[in-house]
Amino acid sequence: MQYILSNANVFQQDKFVKTNIFIQDGIISNISSNTFVQPTNSVVFDLEGFVIFPGLIDVHTHLREPGFFYKETIATGTKAAAHGGYTTICAMPNVNPVPDCAETLAPQLSAIEKTAVIEVLPYGAITYGEKGEALADFEALAPHVCAFSDDGRGVQSDEMMLQAMQKIKQFDKIVAAHCEVNALLNGGYIHDGAYAKLHNHKGICSESEWKQIERDLDLVRQTGCKYHVCHISTKEGVSLIRKAKAEGLPVSCETGPHYLVFCDMDLQEDGRFKMNPPIRSQADKEALLAGICDGTIDMIATDHAPHSAEEKSKGLKGSMMGIVGLETAFPVLYTELVKKGVLSLEKLIDMMHTNPSKRFGIGTPLTIGMPANLTVYDLENSYTINPDDFLSMGKCTPFAGKQVFGKCKMTLYKGNIVWEDDIQNRKSTL
């Protein structure tokens, strides 16, 4: 199919320009405000008043397939991603079987090929079964994975992590670390802060996160391995990454929308506020926002982690950890950060596309000659987040009922429309 996306404000070279995008055979054939010869039967979308930017990239999602089909599938997860404007997502390895060798990765690759509507890049595990006892088969996995992680579990052994970094460096891949010292958890399940004390909950101390970041950075100094901290949530962690970058270490990190919007005093006695790491203090939130603004934090990832309704119905204490985020991330961040003057829209796009693209070497820019991987948003559309509208099988989000701006009107992957919302009245054919 040939498309012309006309009259939109298009994100180009870190700024928005009103122009037209011409798409032929899945490729962006031209970007111009002038008339461009396009084959007959081209479909034209008049996108006056909308913005177009490159397809968003999420380096931290849980698609649950294979092994946990009742929570999410690659089909439903990628449709949810398209609904949120994503065209590339990276799938964490805590599935069954864990992708720790070529044989166990194969079922996931097969399912991606058959059912994904956007690009899905799997992670390989750092250790077999994510058990922290023996290193995974990095050589067999490296050609097929975006990076290596034991997400959901911190690698507890210093020697095991050192060996992993030494070997993974040989393949020029990133170690993406879930940083958590098990010995410091003490049965906690929310942040060890004011809310936990007021409501008699067991808390997870901040040290359980930043202490392992500190250890890993020492190992990066020894090995020179590319290192990425997943879902950073503590002020101490931000400070450690800032200092490491000043040293010139090859490090990066991400945080999630919920850590930038909420603090622990916003918690409710509901499983939709339970995730790992937990929502932390106001001081942590402020440090994360400062890290976003000064470039310490490179990107924003959703940590999309769907569970069944039953698994999330047992309050803060009994519910499983994890929330969904692919369909809410951009509108929440646009509303809370851009509309409130914390970030420019251009900076937000950098954090949700450009920076993850550069760091992980994934995704495609919105330029002539590249695949048409892009998304269209109506930034003036205000609505209330309703989980019943989600395409994900997971419905649990702390943003339910929140009024936001920014609705995804269309997402294209390789020139194919993989999501559209009520834009038929803007459509015509040459």
Radius of gyration, whole Å = 21 Å
Order of H and E elements:
EEEEEEHEHEHHEEHEHEHEHHEHHHEEEE
| Biggest sheet statistics | 9 strands, mixed
**Low-pLDDT segments, ≥5 res:** none
Compute the separation of the termini in Å: 12 Å
How many strands in all? Answer: 18
Percentage of residues assigned to helices: 25-40%
Give the overall pLDDT as a whole number. Answer: 96
Number of helices: 12
- SSE class: alpha/beta
Shape: globular
Strand portion: 15-25%
Structure notes:
By secondary structure, the protein is α/β, with parallel strands linked by helices. Helix content is 29%, strand content 23%. The protein has 12 helices and 18 strands. α6 packs parallel to α7 and α7 runs parallel beside α9. The mean pLDDT is 96.
Quick tags:
single chain, 430 residues, alpha/beta, nine-stranded mixed sheet, four-stranded parallel sheet, 12 helices, 18 strands, globular
Topology:
Layout (H helix, E strand, L loop, with lengths): L2 E10 L2 E10 L2 E6 L10 E4 L4 E4 L1 E6 L12 H10 L2 E6 L10 H14 L3 E4 L15 H4 L16 H12 L4 E4 L12 E2 L2 H5 L4 E2 L2 H17 L2 E4 L5 H13 L3 E5 L1 H5 L20 H13 L4 E2 L14 H4 L10 H10 L6 H16 L13 E11 L18 E11 L2 E5 L6 E3 L1
Parallel strand pairs: 1-4, 1-5, 6-7, 7-8, 9-12, 10-11, 12-13, 13-14
Antiparallel strand pairs: 1-2, 2-3, 4-18, 5-15, 15-16, 16-17
